[in-house]
Specification:
Blueprint: H1 2-16, H2 20-29, E1 31-40, E2 49-50, E3 54-55, H3 56-59, E4 63-67, E5 72-77, E6 85-97, E7 102-110, E8 122-129, E9 133-142, E10 145-155
Antiparallel strand pairs: 1-4, 1-10, 2-3, 4-5, 5-6, 6-7, 7-8, 8-9, 9-10
Organism: Mariniflexile fucanivorans
Protein name: Lipocalin-like protein
Keywords: Signal
């Protein structure tokens, strides 16, 4: 009976942790990335402010750092024609597809010390992830039609 109870407790503890696919993805996402390009699934010119922060032109070339063990990160806008500097965030991973290991996540801006989150968050889909490349997708509504924003990263 003791062994059965111990087995049940062990299974319960293991089932509460992050899945293997999320743990592996966190290892891959860890580190420094550059947001190389932002594209759209439709042709046209869009005047979008990404993450309620800056324009597409400002984000292209920005540098990103992810620290998955505490789900924090920082990105830096480097374009001198934009409001430059570091922006801190926390992210929460939510697994979507156990077969591919890709997931949706929530990115929330924080203050410099990662102490207080804003009440605003951004749902993004991790649509591709390898040791060298990553793509996020964000779906927005423009004039009643869906638009997908693709953010294409490469690892430093």
């Amino acid at each position: 009976m003791k062994k059965l109870i111990l087995l049940c407790v062990a299974i319960t503890i293991l089932s509460c942790g992050a899945s293997k696919t999320v743990r592996v993805s966190k290892k891959v996402i860890k580190g420094d990335w550059v947001l190389n390009s932002i594209t759209y699934n439709q042709s046209g010119t869009f005047n979008a402010t990404l993450l309620n922060d800056a324009s597409k032109a400002c984000f292209e070339g920005s540098t990103w750092q992810f620290v998955p063990n505490n789900n924090t990160g920082v990105y830096s806008i480097n374009d001198a024609t934009c409001a430059t500097g570091e922006r801190y965030f926390v992210f929460t991973i939510q697994e979507v597809d156990a077969e591919t290991g890709l997931y949706d996540f929530l990115l929330k801006p924080t203050d410099e010390k990662h102490k207080s989150e804003t009440n605003q968050g951004f749902r993004l889909k991790l649509s591709a992830l390898s040791d060298t490349d990553m793509q996020w997708q964000q779906s927005v509504n423009v004039g009643g039609s869906p638009l997908t924003i693709n953010m294409n990263f490469s690892k430093n």
